[in-house]
Amino acid sequence: MAQPSPRTRRSSTTLEEVAHLAGVSRATVSRVVNGSPKVSPDVRNDVQAAIDRLGYVPNRAARSLVTRRSDSIAVVITEPTGRLFSDPFFPRLLRGVSSELAARDRQLILLMPDTIADESRTAEYLTAGHVDGALLVSLHADDPLPARLTAAGIPVVLVGRPHKGVKASFVDVDNRQGAQSAVAHLIAGGRRVVATIAGPKDMAAGADRLLGYRDALADAGIPADPNLEIVGDFTQESGATAMGRLLEARPDIDAVFAASDLMAAGALAVLAANGRRVPADVSVVGFDDSPVATTTMPQLSSVRQPIEAMGHEVARLLVDAVEGSDLVPRRVILATELVRRASSAGRPSP
Amino acid sequence: MAQPSPRTRRSSTTLEEVAHLAGVSRATVSRVVNGSPKVSPDVRNDVQAAIDRLGYVPNRAARSLVTRRSDSIAVVITEPTGRLFSDPFFPRLLRGVSSELAARDRQLILLMPDTIADESRTAEYLTAGHVDGALLVSLHADDPLPARLTAAGIPVVLVGRPHKGVKASFVDVDNRQGAQSAVAHLIAGGRRVVATIAGPKDMAAGADRLLGYRDALADAGIPADPNLEIVGDFTQESGATAMGRLLEARPDIDAVFAASDLMAAGALAVLAANGRRVPADVSVVGFDDSPVATTTMPQLSSVRQPIEAMGHEVARLLVDAVEGSDLVPRRVILATELVRRASSAGRPSP
DNA sequence: CATGAGCGTGAGAGCGCTCTCACAGGCAGT
DNA sequence: ACTGCCTGTGAGAGCGCTCTCACGCTCATG
Is pLDDT of A348 > 60? Predict the structure, then answer.
């Protein structure tokens, strides 16, 4: 009956073959493979031996077909510019996600739509049930994707706090607290005219970091001054422009908190060009603790984010949601850490 | 007959249903979906209408099961540190790969093994036939993966020239030519004592960039001086150390070509600390054109690599190999471009 | 007017797996 | 000794698709 003729291509071993070798039925082998408790120890051993001997690996497609799960998770990155090309946020995040998914035996399918057409194809792909869940990174304020996926019953978790209105689980760093600690550090260093170069207010990270800045001022009893708050777009160039305007509006400025390292780098260049010494005259702190922070002169103090941990957390949340049909949106906020470098060293002597 | 009862979960439409609605057989619908030419135009239209109406999307698992292809490609990134966290090489590469794969209707499965155990699991996963091909990024010199996959009949393409002995298609940038043009530029700027901070010699990129440096010296008839060649490991710190040693060995140095921007940044800091003005006293060029290049003071001239293009190319090669069982290894070398910034501006006046 | 080629279409097997259901055997309780 | 129950195992259906093969039709050909 058995017809062990050499098939075309590399025909991997099947359940059937394992079952035959172990002298049991397909069902039993399946139970062993899937760790069912209702298999007697000796049968389990026989089957395991057969599996090892044949080097059996389950066929994912066949399994998916019947279980209607794909055991794979999509990571969708919709960011045409910005972070993608300025600091290694994504690789680190992906590493965190990847390691968590590997531990949970899930595949990571990466989608990086780079055109509008691509984006709608992405949405179709996701709703077609090819993945068990989706992990969305840095979507625009008006991205319809989360709502669309949720409506289609696809579990979704976001990286970064979504704009209000979006009801979904997310993981974010504590931007507000991070900014607050940075500014508190500047004030503790004896600075009193502390400016901020904020991020875009329509991005959660931008808005939150600005709030943190204000928190710290309020804590220290320093009144807020609109002239000390300038909004940039996280880029180096915008940081430079903002710094120029700050120096014009308040020449007595003695500290700057920039909502990104790149903006801080831009600010440093403008400060140097204007003869201000850092940190002697002006103390500077950035945000992100990107590689840029150590290449500036002086090196930049910065707020470090637990990026890999975010990746782990977001993947964990998503897999939990997939497994448990967990409908309650969860939110996880991770703490940041201030890394002190030369740019915000205390005044040599007051 | 039709039983449009609501099934459990999201039960997507099947071929069967489309066939029924269009009044044809499953086989015909399958032919239409797969673009077979042997379908009469009117039948094709009917079927297409039914597909559109029902929003039919083929079930990938079922298809894979019978075709024995997964239509997905693995991208394996085995880089614990280095490039992963220092510049946005990977996101840009992934973007190139992703866009090419999307156009070719393939899925991108990302694998980032971060432990040794993980690596062997990765190898097992890949050889288990879950993917049609693999794209390997930055493997170590002694990585057994390419050989193992090739032996298992899995098409493989590498990003970056492999160490000799590995027979596989690859895509790389012209490191030698890029370095050569950078050094030629320094010499054209009137520099004569040109040093290099090279990359590790056991990495192709390190070795090739060193060769390019020597090429340019030879072209200009400048004899090579071992004291002017110091090997770093691509990090900022190693660049700083190397610069210190160079200044000691040859205080008359008037130009430095660093094989990475980070090493160049380290060198800049040491030059500044030693009172050397850049570019007036010493001219500096880096490699990679990473974001760091614009945050240093002065901004860093650098050799730019076509990273997205590499991604496209490598994906194209791999899919071609998968489709055509293309057994002849191909190699693609992409040109670089020198980006001139302040750090290598010509001498104000000799 | 029979024959054969060619084309479009349908019937049906089968890819490798999971999972329900039936059932054999052992054991305790009456 | 009979019933009932639990536990471990096997038989078999079926997931949605592709692909081979057979078949019916139309046309050109002898």
Answer: no
Q: From the CA atom positions of chain B, what is the Rg in Å? A: 27
Question: Cβ contact (<8 Å) for A61 and B59?
Answer: no
A2-40 per-position pLDDT tens digit: 333 333 344 588 999 999 999 999 999 999 999 988 889
B61-79 pLDDT tens trace: 999 999 999 999 999 998 7
Q: Do B12 and A129 touch (CB under 8 A)?
A: yes
Nearest-by-Cβ selection for B90 from A62, A91, A111:
A91
Determine the protein residue whose CA lies at the shortest distance from the C1' of D10: A25
Cβ atoms of B116 and B140 within 8 Å: the answer is: no
Measured to protein CB atoms, the chain D nucleotides within 7 Å are 7-20
The residue-averaged pLDDT of B117-143 equals 86
Residue A191 contacts residue A216 (beta carbons within 8 Å) = no
Interchain pair B84, A92: CB under 8 A: yes
- What's the whole-number average pLDDT of chain B? 90
Is-contact A234 A84, C-beta < 8 A? no
CB contact under 8 A, B95 and A118: no
Q: Which of A112, A295, A305, A325 to mutate to test the interface with B (most CBs of B within 10 A)?
A: A295
Helices (H), A104-174: 116-127, 145-151
pLDDT digits (tens, 9 = 90+) for A222-257: 999 999 999 999 999 999 999 999 999 999 999 999
Q: Which residue of A has its CA nearest to B119?
A: A102
Instruction: Report the predicted TM-score, pTM, of the whole model to 2 decimal places.
Output: 0.90
Rounded to a whole number, what is the largest CA-CA distance in chain B? 93
